[in-house]
Amino acid sequence: MPQRVTVAKVANIPDGGSVVVNVLQRDVAIFYVNGAFFAVDDFCPHMGASLSGGYVEDGCVTCPWHFWRFRLLDGSWADNPKVKIASFPVHVVGDEVQLELPDLPVL
Q1: Class of 3-101 per CATH?
Q2: What is the rounded CA–CA span in Å between residue 31 and residue 15?
Q3: What is the DSSP string of 7-75?
Q4: pLDDT, tens only, 4-27
Q5: Three-state secondary structure along 62-107?
Q6: Nearest to 8 by CA among 22, 72, 16, 52
Q7: Which pTM was predicted?
Q8: How confident is the model at residue 36 (pLDDT cuts 50, 70, 90)?
């Protein structure tokens, strides 16, 4: 069963802003855009730039290095939706921002 992990307080992410959190040894960028939260991998697959520093417009974040655009809703590359970065459902519970993580393998 998927699990939820609290990663930030709502007040710590201004509208139009982003933060990077480390969850399960991966950096995740959380964006707050027009009253909605989105979470995607913070690592651009092209050259490794941090997407949290990118420009957000029309539901996409643009990589600050080479301008690759990724949809915040599902992590798909805007120019070729077959290429994706991970995206995570975000829940707001009270004043907490929570990421929903996929099932982890049982060791």
Answers
A1: mainly beta
A2: 8
A3: EEEGGGS-TT-EEEEEETTEEEEEEEETTEEEEEESB-TTT--BGGGSEEETTEEE-TTT--EEETTT-
A4: 999 999 999 999 999 999 998 889
A5: ECCCCCCEEECCCCEECCEEEEECCEECEEEECCEEEEEECCCCCC
A6: 22
A7: 0.91
A8: very high
